[in-house]
Amino acid sequence: MIEGGKSNYIITTAKENLETFTEKQQLFWNCFYDGKTDIGPIDRSMIDPLKMKSLLPSIWMGDLIFDDDQKLVNVFVRLLGTNIANLYGELTNSNLMSDDGENSYQRNFAGSYQRFLKSLDLLLETKQPVIVNADFVSNRKKYISSKGLLIPVCNNSSKINMVIELLIFA
């Protein structure tokens, strides 16, 4: 578990914390793990938008890009739900780690970006879904409580090379 110092956040594996899930997180979890005891990366073919239609505005999905030494070097955003875009801006088709321009995620939401990197590190280390709960003030000076459930995905590979996340803001 990773806990924020001055920032109020927790990043930990999800399986041990099912009882803390919101109703939406439980619905998302059940799309992939309902009744399963073997919790780990899912295959891309398990992602069925029709099963999670009501959650789509709060879901994003991205490709994990590794160098030859298997070090994560980028995350390419394939899909970004409207609820997420309303807060962070449109990030579809962007590279979250290499784009550091004036309107980039990492520049405009530095704290959120650092939590994101830590959550990816834990996900890749444990090969397990991760929850990320954080309270922060947006760049528009609005207090936000976020609850994320990040799931590792294998797409045409035995290695984790994608992620899908349900990200809820209150």
Q: Could you characterize the architecture of this molecule?
A:
The protein has 170 residues and is α+β, with helices and mostly antiparallel strands. It has one domain: PAS domain (Beta-Lactamase, 2-Layer Sandwich), CATH 3.30.450.20. The chain is built from four helices and eight strands; from the N terminus they run ββαβββαααβββ. Strands 1, 2, 3, 4, 5, 6, 7 and 8 form an eight-stranded mixed beta sheet that branches. A hairpin with a 5-residue loop joins β6 and β7. The relative contact order is 0.22. The N terminus is likely disordered.
Query: What is the tally of beta strands?
Result: 8
Structural class: alpha+beta
The poorly predicted ranges are 2-6
**Total helical segments:** 4
From the N-terminal CA to the C-terminal CA, the straight-line distance is 23 Å
Write the element-wise H/E pattern from the N-terminal end onward: EEHEEEHHHEEE
Q: Architecture in CATH?
A: 2-Layer Sandwich
Quick check: average pLDDT? 90
Look at the structure and give the CATH class. Alpha Beta
CATH topology-level fold name: Beta-Lactamase
**Strand percentage:** 25-35%
Give the tally of structural domains.
1
Estimated radius of gyration: 15 Å
Q: Globular, elongated, flat, extended or rod-shaped: what is the shape?
A: globular
- Helicity, as a percent range: 10-25%
What is the fourth-level CATH superfamily?
Answer: PAS domain
- Note the main sheet: 8 strands, mixed
